[in-house]
Amino acid sequence: MRLTSVKLAGFKSFVDPTTIAVPGQLVGVVGPNGCGKSNVIDAVRWVLGETSAKQLRGEHMHDVIFNGSAERKPVGRASVELVFDNSLGRVGGAWAQYTEISVKRVLSRDGDSNYYINGQHVRRRDVQDIFLGTGLGPRAYSIIEQGMISRVITSKPEELRVFLEEAAGVSKYRERRRETELRLEDTRENLSRVGDIQAELETQVGHLAQQAEVAGKYNELQTQLALNHNLLTFTRLREADTAKTRYGNEVQKVTVALEAETAKLRENERALEDLRHKHYQETDHLSQLQGNLYAANADVQSLEQEIAFLGENRRRMTVQLDGLATEIGEVERRISEAHGERDRFQSDSERARAAIGERAADVERARAALPAAEEAARTATANVKSAGTEMSAAEQAQGIEESRESHALKILSQLEARKNRLKQENMALVFPEPEKLAGLERERDSLREKVSGLETQQKDAEGRLPALEDERRAAVTTLQEKTREVANLEAALKALESQQAKLDNNSKLADWARQHALDRSERLWQAMHVEAGWDDAVEAALGVRLNAARLSDESNLSSLLRDAPPGNFAVFIERGVPDIASASSHLRPLSSVVTSTRPGVLAYVKEALGNVFILPDGEEGLALAKVLPPGGLLVSKAGHLFGRQGVVFHGPQSELHGVLQRQREIEDLQGRIPAQVRSRAEVDERLKALEIELREGQDNARRVREELQRARQQDHDLEVEYLKLSQSSKQAEARREAIRVELSEIEKQEEGEKLEMSEAQHALQRGSEAIETIVQRLQALEESARDAQSALDTARAGILAAERAHQEAQYTERSATDKAASQGQLAVSLGERLSALGMNKAKVSEELGALEEGNVRERLQGALQVKSERERILADARSGLEHLADELRSLEEGRLSVEQNLNPMRERITELKLKEQEAVTNAEQYATQLQEAGVTREEMAEQIEKRVGSRTMQAEITRLTEEIAALGPVNLAALQELETARDRKGFLDAQATDLFQAVETLEAAIKRIDRETREMLQSTFDIVSANFTEMFPALFGGGQASLKLTGEEILDAGVQVFAQPPGKKNASIQLLSGGEKALTAIALVFSLFKLNPAPFCLLDEVDAPLDDPNTVRFCELVKQMSAQTQFLFITHNKITMELGEQLVGVTMQEPGVSRIVEVDIEAAMEFARKQAA
């Protein structure tokens, strides 16, 4: 797999789409500082999946997007694409079939980052998976940026191990191991959850089994209850059918009587209807007569209104005539005023037209005088400008000569200062003394002996530390185990004590005990001990007395009796009473399994258990209980109580169940915890002693190491000083000869500069005289130009004044003419208004004469006579209508009497029908209930013969309902839930087995990965160490170097570099110079490349700290490695540039924007040869 090109767009300074071709194995990137060369390295690192902005020399990831320049705006996204040649098929997986692979990354300013392989959107992990084990990656050893080559050699051992893993190709195994560990952790969590669910299911199955038993009893009772309900329903169905028949017969009887009364009512209603029809006719006739009267009244009112309207019109027209006369006089006055104003404005217009002619003549005279003044001003200005140009030329020539003189003086001053500095430097040259060099050599020998002794002490001091560290780790492990055991015991004790404290869970009873100071009293179970195995028996026999509170003062008993507790509660008093004799000598009393250190407690227990005896194993309780005295009981280990007449079974339903067993466990834990605490304290003391001893050993080793480092540093300083002194003599002699040559050159430069200054001074004198003459002539010309310009300004002002006066005269003439025309139009308009007012006055006078009232009053008298006649006819009609109304009222009262007799009959029929319908509804309801219950009437008829009646069935239903209620809440789905829970438990058991197998498989896979990784890492380390040992002397021309592991387990151990250049015995890599560190790091990186050559390698100015001989050796090594690896290097070194087959130039002609210039070296050399030929 070979890199063929890098495509950038919007990435840092590469704002325009840019393609960097990488055709060969050795490609150099050159250019000035700050032009964007390192951005190419950052682009490759970024597209390979780098997520840290710090590694890309930024603060935020969006800093890689071009942020604009002085001439360009910021862009919205950045993209980088790497194109690889995969013709050899080194890329595995799904991409192996492609001969060319492109990897692209795009980032937008909204933070959206996308990866693409061959244009297909992929994850970042997919990109990294392609290069796993190839040495390529965002932080792999194949990409070495500025300063990184020195950091590689000074990195921590753990950081160097990453390079070793990448070279060994185990990074993909580490990733798989991490994924396997995550799956193993998930599997263990799933297994833990399955275990929790299994435990929960076991408890749930037990509860569901009890609930299923209750559900079975409930179903049996419900079956009996349903049968009795069906029988009761059938009985009520037959009763409803009988009631329906009885009510139907009664309805028929009442209906016959109702029909007879209804016939009588119909006859009465027909007579009433005929009379009503006659009454309606008379009413209509009356309405017609009344309408005629209303019409006569309307005629009278109309004539009266017409007489009133005529009088109002006469008054209104009289007022209107008076107003018209007044308005006519006002219009005549305004017409006279308009004629006067029109004559005045016509006079003003004639005067303005005369003034316009005079002002136009003034304007023409002023304009005629203007051209001569303008020509005089232009001539004067041109003369001044010409003289000014001549003056500027002279001043410019004078400035040039002044610059020549100033430059010559400056050069002479610099040469003098340089000459003095060289003379002082020549006098200050110092040559070292031979005696001082010999003394330094003796000091170095003494320091070497001291370093050797300190190295021996360091080895001894550090050799004791691993054993102490192992012993300390073992002590820490033991202490953690002891601490864990103590914590577990204390947690168990706390849980038991918490459970014991929850015995009094009745809040009302607890408040009562607190009120009587009994909440903190000692309980009976705390003061006694029970033989193992008899806890249930003692709990069953004592019952509530097991939790009896100790009453310290017997006198308080009377107050307790007066204020009885709100629940079951017991107290006991310690009295030393004699033991109660056993009533049966051959049975063992239950009190014999109870012991106590306090006689009073033992006496109370024996009293409480006086008639309770232990049932021997294998004996039948009821048979043996026959020989018991009255009130005696036998108890088994399970807590079942046998009496002479029955058995009381013991079940763990009380909160006191297990209290004795928990109390024994509490006492056992209270005895074990102090011993464990003492054991933990002993281990803790031993650990502190080991830590003190280990700390002293570490301090001693650190002290020796620091002293050794100081000694090595002193030796290094002496070596540096010796080299400086030995080289300073040769340098001083060479510098003295160079100073002599440089002083000779300075004297020659001084003679030339003095001649140049003399010529400039003569030219300055001549220029000053010429400038003085030009200044005098320029002053005279400027005075003449000012006079001409003043005359021109005066002429232009006269023209403006004449034009303004002419415009004012024209405005006055137009204004007067417009106003005269306006007043004329007003007079015409007012004349028209006067004519219209005269016509209107004549019309109103004519209408006033036409208004007369005589004819209207005659018509009013005729209308009044018609009205009187119609009032008389209407009164006769009303009298006849009242007689008909009396007859109609009499018939209506008879009809109401008949209807009152019908209503009770109808109500009786309705009542009977409702009862009949109720019986029908009940019968249908009961029939529906029987049908829904799935039984027939024939089946119920057979069953009903065996029953006494509905009352007996109702009593049976009540009894069954009470038994069902006594069962309490019933989980009817318990049977199905029990089956489901058992099926689920079986499924979870199978799942748990599968998870156990998965855990074993994953753990085996991790072990296999660790074994393979360990073998590959060890093999890689051995090869890389051998390559490093071989390559280091090749680069340094001698010396020795090696790699060492910092731990025994290679999977976790770091890698430490030891290097000693030729002639040096440095004990630390930190003592090497910058160039030596760079060469050592190059040897290490190339050792990794030699084992696992990456497809390509990026080097960013790694040759910067190297001198020319080391650079040559570096280039030879790179050329050798280029047979297998493609190199893209950034350099400023000409020697390294010569190595490249192609050179890529990076320029920044536009500020902030990088561009590419590519040169093929071989093609360029061929072109040069052709040009030379």
TrEMBL record:
UniProt keyword list: ATP-binding, Coiled coil, Cytoplasm, DNA-binding, Nucleotide-binding
GO cellular component terms, semicolon-separated: chromosome; cytoplasm
Subcellular location: Cytoplasm
Highest taxon of the lineage: Bacteria
Name this protein carries in UniProt: Chromosome partition protein Smc
Function: Required for chromosome condensation and partitioning.
Domain SMC hinge: 523-625
Encoding gene per record: smc
UniProt-listed NCBIfam families: SMC_prok_B
